[in-house]
Amino acid sequence: MLASSAAALSIPPEVTGPQATLVVSSAMAAPDGFERPVTVVNGLTPAPLIKVNTGDLLQVNVVNNLTDPSMFRGTSIHWHGMYQHTTNWADGVAGVNQCPISPGESFLYQFSTTGQAGTYWYHSHYRTQYCDGLRGPLVIYDPNDPAAFMYDFDDENTIITLSDWYHLQSPSITGIAANDATLINGVGRYPGGPQVDLAEINVVQGKRYRFRIIAMSCDPNYIFSIDGHPLTIIEADGQNTQPYTVDSIQILAGQRYSVVLNADQPVDNYWIRALPNSGNYDLDTGFTGGTNSAILRYFGAPMTIDPTSTPPADPVAFDETLLHPLDDSPVPGEPYPGGADVNLNLALDFDEEAWRFYINGVTFQPPTIPVLLQILSGVEAAQSLLPEGSVYSLPANASIEISIPGGLISSPHSFSVVKSAGIDTPYNYDNPVRRDVVNTGDVGSNTTIRFSTDNSGPWILHCHIDWHLDLGLAIVMAEDAPDVLATNPAPSSWDNLCPAFNSQPPSATSIQIVPTPAIY
């Protein structure tokens, strides 16, 4: 939210529908009271809520008006969680599905939401640009939602976005990035900073609310809770789940949850808490001065008084192994480790001297010719596709198992988490949660996922800690490469992206490194 906007808002300040124009530009903003250059959409950060119904055709024209040389000026938009069936060209991953949109140019993304409903988001997928502000919520509503009987309200007023914020522009951050503030619905406070008005979520006693929680962070995960109010999970990453009630949820970068909150407590103000696992100036140690916080305000409660509520002494914490899908769709493959048609093990590594991440000995470097363009030009074999060693060919209509040691991954597929993070967590082939972002745990841990190759095209599988992705922690799955040309026809405007970007003079895309600001 811009510094000039009203501070105590409970929703993104702009809502748009399936036909929209998003103007990406540079501006000055102070979402936590510290002013800095940011990347905004239609003048705002977070970007506007895109609100549609299942089955709608999204047509979003992205206009690149970026001018600030201290931030990335090319751009692309990824629609996180969208299957992009037959529209791989619209997935928005620079270097994989498209070339960036050049400054002064525009590009129309068009794709269907048929077969999908739930809580999603959109963000830049060009370098670390979304860390500078280009991220916003995308919600697909289902008029026949099977959980509708559980809540009274579900609209733009019940969306909660969690973001990390940095006082230095992302291209100038070196070493290990550490966020300065947690933003909830676009506003927050940093330790020792000004008392910025916090975001408010307003409720009426006796009503039930579906809160859609979106972790739009570049790095930290959060322990999310609302004092005095249990949260009943009914959706994870666009997948309906069996109701599961907890007091707090660990939500990782890129993940989303829908929870039902019953406003059955005395009329008062209650703290909404989102404690990050990292941050500058002890940001990750608590809520001093209203850091990492927002306010749940009952109608009739004092408007000018901060909450005095406290969290439960012995909270019921979230356990992913207890989260199960609402339906009984079978897990692809046979019910034992290695029981898929294709079984992959991904070994993750970090070379401190090179300051790069590696998967199976290869660091991902986005190619100048997007992988999709390579395939459409006739290259199909993984060993011939660039970047060399980072592309894995997968056959059509096969079951795929991927086992990964410690980290955090995001996939274009919703997958079955047959083994959640941990050393001793059991395998579950009966009813594991399906989602599109999963924690792979710490050193010594292992996570195993399963999915079916039913969506032709190149798809990136990557760490959703954006700093890690930028340092090479990704691979590309080239799914059913022989059928990509027939199933994913790209528009002529897509063909023009690479020539336009490659013809830009260095002055149009070069980065001006700036010093770390002194905030105290």
Q: How is this fold's topology laid out?
A:
Layout (H helix, E strand, L loop, with lengths): L14 E2 L2 E11 L6 E6 L7 E5 L3 E9 L11 E4 L25 E7 L5 E7 L10 E7 L17 E7 L15 E4 L15 E4 L4 E8 L6 E5 L4 E6 L2 E8 L1 E4 L4 E7 L6 E8 L16 E6 L43 E4 L2 E4 L4 E4 L11 H6 L14 E4 L4 E21 L14 E19 L4 E6 L3 H5 L3 E6 L4 H4 L4 H4 L1 H6 L3 H4 L11
Parallel strand pairs: 1-4, 2-5, 4-9, 10-13, 12-20, 21-25, 24-28
Antiparallel strand pairs: 2-3, 5-7, 6-8, 8-9, 10-11, 13-18, 14-17, 14-19, 15-16, 15-18, 19-20, 22-23, 25-26, 27-28
Protein architecture, described:
The protein is mainly β and 520 residues long. The chain is built from 6 helices and 28 strands. The protein has helices at 371-376, 466-470, 484-487, 492-495, 497-502, 506-509; strands spanning 15-16, 19-29, 36-41, 49-53, 57-65, 77-80, 106-112, 118-124, 135-141, 159-165, 181-184, 200-203, 208-215, 222-226, 231-236, 239-246, 248-251, 256-262, 269-276, 293-298, 342-345, 348-351, 356-359, 391-394, 399-419, 434-452, 457-462, 474-479. It has a 6-stranded mixed β-sheet, with no helix packed on it. Mean pLDDT is 94; it is low at 1-12.
Question: What are the defining features of this structure?
Answer:
520 residues, mainly beta, six-stranded mixed beta sheet, five-stranded mixed beta sheet, 28 strands, disordered N terminus
